[in-house]
Amino acid sequence: MKTIGIAIHTDRPLIKETTDRVINWCNNNGIECRMCEGAVKIVDHAELAIASEDISTICEAIITLGGDGSILASARAFGKYGVPILGVNLGKLGFLTEVAQNQVEDALSHLKENKFRIEERMALEITFPNHTTLTALNDVVVDHGEQIRLARMDLLSNGEFVCPYDADGVVIATPTGSTAYSLSAGGPVIDPVMNAVAVTPISPHTLALRSIIFPAENILTIRAGLNEMDLRIALDGQIMGTLSSGQEVIIKKAKYKVKLIKFETKSFYEVLRTKLHWGARPLFNS
User: Fold this and answer.
1) Where are the domains of the chain?
2) Which of 17, 84, 94, 235 has the CA that lies 20 to 30 A from 75?
3) 123-255: which CATH topology?
């Protein structure tokens, strides 16, 4: 690997220090380093800046500094270009990030020596009522927004009516997103390399509504109820639009997969146990 890009989507503690460490390592190891022009406002190094749309053609990998939100932002920005992404955790949980801040130099050495693997993750393509199309790596959430009352909507799969929802909202999650909001809403954990979509209601007003897992090839539609308030649409935690009475948002598998850089140090199940404490015994049984 000869060229590495740095992506920064937020100003966190340790961002500048970690960026400097990456740049210094690259300079000392004969690796060209470039940076998204938006990052210059946070960490300087204007001499390395290039346009975000150019970084995918110049760089062989993207180092994303931040937390899980930064990984999701990089996936939306660079995933469609097929550039592999490595996450460095400067946040709290860091479920999607691969390395900790104190492992940066070791991770860069593995990249230089091509001692890594690429894990492909399914993404979603979302079409809004105005025909705008966006993508998400984790999930799509349609909920009641600022209103404190039930949202009413219908779910369709390949044009066939599945069920109505009277709930706070609904989460449509990829396998990658199954350990995020979907899990908090009671959805299942799905192995991230699978091709499937989980639809989970948020606080439904009936015990008869639970998660449904669909084949990734199915085209899902969320239709706002008639005479319903405007519903809010969020992609990967970012509010992107609204759904008015009778309008539809269409969700399907994206044409590409997001490539994440992984090392052989830990499996998905080990991360599940260590970061989400999956299967941990309670401290007290009485």
Assistant:
1) 3-116+263-275, 123-255
2) 17
3) Tumour Suppressor Smad4 (2.60.200)
Tens digits of per-residue pLDDT, 63-88?
999 888 889 999 998 899 899 999 99
> Tokens representing 252?
């399907």
- Rg of the chain, C-alpha, whole Å: 20
pTM of the predicted model, to two decimals? 0.89
In Å, what is the CA distance from 128 to each residue of 132, 134, 135, 276? 5, 8, 11, 33
Catalytic residue (choose from 11, 44, 68, 106)? 68
pLDDT tens digits, 249-264: 999 999 999 999 998 7
Strand partners, 238: 235
Establish whether 68 is a catalytic residue: yes
One-letter amino acid identity for 177?
Answer: G
